[in-house]
Amino acid sequence: MKTLLVKNAEVLVTMDAGRREIARGGLYIEDNRIVAVGTGDTLPASADEVLDLTGHVVIPGLVNTHHHMYQSLTRAIPAAQDGELFNWLTNLYPVWANLTPEMIRVSTKTAMAELLLSGCTTSSDHLYIYPNGCKLDDSIEAAAEIGMRFHASRGSMSVGQSQGGLPPDRVVEREGDILKDTQRLIETYHDEGRYAMLRVVVAPCSPFSVSRDLMRESATMARHYGVSLHTHLAENVNDIAYSREKFGMTPAEYAQDLGWVGHDVWHAHCVQLDDAGIALFAKTGTGVAHCPCSNMRLASGIAPIRRMRDAGVPVGLGVDGSASNDAASMINEARQALLLQRVGFGPSAMTARDALEIATVGGARVLGRDDIGVLAAGMAADFVAFDTRGVGMAGGLHDPVAALVFCNPGQAAYSVVNGRVVVREGRLTTLDLPSLVTRHNALARQLAEASR
Ligand SMILES: [Zn+2]
């Protein structure tokens, strides 16, 4: 057994039921789980490894509930800089059609490196395009290599343009193949145990790229295996119009009709979720992944997060893919969530602590986990530390916890995942970042050139 002692944190934010914040706080960890939380005098005096986090704020590792990591190869693509969702997708599908397995592996590691350096220890990823032999296994391999806790979502698209869908026919799959591969992935990789580092999620891309049958069969399969369901829903007004025209229902009504509500389901965006939809999600425990930067980038609107939370809807935070949020920083996403909610609904619509709650324990709930997002005995040893002594937080130490969100704390000094120090003194310990970025940039160039 390996032990790790964390001590002297300026403040340790537990996110436990009492939302305790402990000055001069620390943690005692055995292998991959937290054994004790408290001030130094209440913890063992020594351990195999001791981290003195004087001057740092320690929080639970942030939980990212929505991403498309392959999109890190297509940031700031000129043709897709200024469109709304449907136009943006139409410009990018032909580029993504040239993805290769190496591109999936390298971009996933790059996206995870960026997340880990921004204080995130658990991420989901929604991979829904599988050209040229790409597989979800490529993402799974990347997560294991870098050491991130991972919810790998088997996305899919089956309704191409010739069938009235949005994606070109050459990037869609046959529904039988999708279901077979999804079953293989669950049986091969899904770990339902406590502290699982890898879970598989069933995740058709969106109501405008798969059929009603595939949505229904996906729900049946997910419930058979006890895995979660994830998709995009009610992202913007065109999305609503498509739903009304094709299905004669709002997106929330369509989700209910398909069996896509419940504690085991979370939907990305829900910017245009109406009051009846909010009530339905609250009643059924259906989760929402809020992605403020992406919603602003694509001018989708302002998701009514305050109303959702007041109604009891589980809400987590997501950076979304890097083609619609070209800066995938989880701590910055919490800041943007706070700012955007205030633009829409006034200055009391979200506090700094609300934003941190959504980004930690909120995300954990959305992913269906009760072993992460909180620093308490018996929880997974996932925590991050930000150094408060840099210029970005200078003058903000009246309330260092709020300052994490209001100010710019920079990169995480430490990210610890399942008891393993994956970021130490601001550097990744599990791979060589400069060579990864060099390869990522070469592949990004190759991908853009292939689609000219
Ligand atoms: Zn998305």
Descriptive keywords:
452 residues, globular, binds zinc ion, 8-oxoguanine deaminase activity, Metal_Hydrolase, MTA/SAH_deaminase
Description:
This protein is of the alpha/beta class and 452 residues long. The chain has helices spanning 85-96, 101-117, 136-146, 175-189, 212-225, 237-247, 251-258, 275-284, 292-297, 305-311, 330-345, 352-366, 400-406, 433-450; strands at residues 3-13, 21-30, 33-39, 49-52, 56-60, 62-64, 120-127, 149-156, 198-204, 229-233, 265-269, 287-290, 315-317, 383-387, 414-417, 420-424, 427-428. The protein is globular. The N and C termini lie far apart (54 Å). The mean pLDDT is 96. Zinc ion binds next to loops.
